[in-house]
Amino acid sequence: KIIILDFGSQYTQLIARAVREANVYCEIIPYYQQFDINETLKGVILSGSPFSVNEEKAPVVAISDFNKALPILGICYGAQLTAKTYGGVVNKSNKREYGRATLILKNEQDALFDGVPQQSQVWMSHSDSIQQLPPHFEVLATTESIPVAAFKQSNHSPNPLYGLQFHPEVFHSTEGKKIIRNFLVNICGCSQNWTPANFVQESIAQLKKQIGDRKVIMALSGGVDSTVAATLISKAIGDHLYCLFVDNGVLRKNEYEQVLHTYQQLHLNVVGIDAKEHFYTKLAGKTDPEEKRKIIGNTFIEIFDREAKRMNDIGMLGQGTIYPDVIESVSVHGPSQTIKSHHNVGGLPDYMQLELVEPLRFLFKDEVRKVGIELGIPAELINRHPFPGPGLAIRILGEVTEEKVHLLQQADAIFIDALRNANLYSKVWQAGAILLPVKSVGVMGDERTYEYTLALRAVTSVDGMTADWAHLPYDFLASVSNAIINQVKGINRVVYDISSKPPATIEWE
Ligand code: XMP
């Protein structure tokens, strides 16, 4: 395994993903956290940082201590900190260097640059740069604007010590993945055996050990994470896993039946709970978006709690928590600030003092999908768009009623089916329909209509944090609009949302 020490760079997770993509397991820990040095640990990567190494409060680690036992790769701030630690000079450059640059290798023979052409594009993002390397360090590469773009310690160290001023982990560093792979394999001697198949095997063995003969309860959402987590747990303990899938009345058309069917095919021990009426009653008359969210969350907990009490001797709680929710982010405001921690992401109350079982705690989303495929979960479920917990309730602006849910379910299904049929479903990150509390006049045949307006929303995104509206073809939008107005009685006008996030959000509420 590899440890990535995080100094608060926005790219730290990308380093971890690049390492994982090379089939090597790694963990991100805050730079100040202790870690065990043992035979499974093969190397350390030091991340970038918003700090300057010359700032008084700049975060530091004992690089030379680590290097006694392990190879080290410093990236950006990590490289500057390495240079400074050993007696080099790091200064503010007169030009800040952001964006593309051409990396020019000075030592093409070095194992770090195996297979990398003499010149290649890299991505820079720094305002300090290394003016002078410490004694016994060697420049491995430069760019047009900086003398030290890559270096290594050239002698006397028991273990290799490298630094890169550029960011090999970002997409725009075209040889970056290769350089990271070279560090892992050629320098650290990692074996590339972190694969979905190995993960499944090891994780089942570990779950068996962790759980023993206790019983686990788990709520399923129909989404990828909870399904993959439950399938893994179920492979480990079979029917000692009790799953609940609740129909909260604001799922998509036929979703409850279809998802339950899939769960049964996966041999999950699952109970479906039809709580539609209960949710509708609680939601009646409520129009405030945050209040609607809270009601749905609390009602869910109430039902979960009731069902959990009904089952005997439940000992543990299963959750589909994934790695991005777990990583403690290093504060950019200074090491003394409170560190965010996201525990119990599933939103269940603290009084449920059950030990957690979270088999996906160390996986990124793309790895969860690969593990899901490995487990034989249908591709349709694995590749589903994200769908918010409060469901259609936050896509019905204003009060939620059964009748409005029914209207929206039909319109949404027409839109989503059309996306699939036109091979557009996988090209957008998320899509859905929103029922607006606006009625307008229309004409159908000889008759005047006065009916609801529906908004269609489709976005492209990587992680939902930022998003652009999807530029769907006009012909496609025309046919969806036609189909909805003709088939869904109660909607006589369709509009397309062309706002990006920010400043808009993906959901309307
Ligand atoms: P926004 O609207 O904030 O949405 O741009 C970003 C992503 O988060 C989803 N979302 C939610 N998911 N509970 C959830 O589980 C919620 O209350 C919630 N609100 C938004 C949204 O669907 C999108 O994928």
UniProtKB/TrEMBL annotation:
CDD domains given in the database record: GATase1_GMP_Synthase, GMP_synthase_C
GO molecular function: ATP binding; GMP synthase activity
Domain GMPS ATP-PPase: 194-384
Signal peptide, first to last residue: none
Pathway entry: Purine metabolism; GMP biosynthesis; GMP from XMP (L-Gln route): step 1/1
Keyword field contains Iron-sulfur: no
Function statement: Catalyzes the synthesis of GMP from XMP.
PROSITE patterns attached to this UniProt entry: GATASE_TYPE_1, GMPS_ATP_PPASE
Enzyme class: ligase
NCBIfam families: guaA_Cterm, guaA_Nterm, PRK00074.1
Top-level division of the source organism's lineage: Bacteria
Example of a GO cellular component annotation carried by this entry: cytosol
Catalytic activity: XMP + L-glutamine + ATP + H2O = GMP + L-glutamate + AMP + diphosphate + 2 H(+)
Protein name (record): GMP synthase [glutamine-hydrolyzing]
Subunit structure: Homodimer.
Keywords assigned by UniProt, alphabetized: ATP-binding, Glutamine amidotransferase, GMP biosynthesis, Ligase, Nucleotide-binding, Purine biosynthesis
Residues that bind ATP: 221-227
Active site: 76 (nucleophile), 167, 169
EC nos: 6.3.5.2
Pfam families: GATase, GMP_synt_C, NAD_synthase
Entry annotated with the keyword Protein transport: no
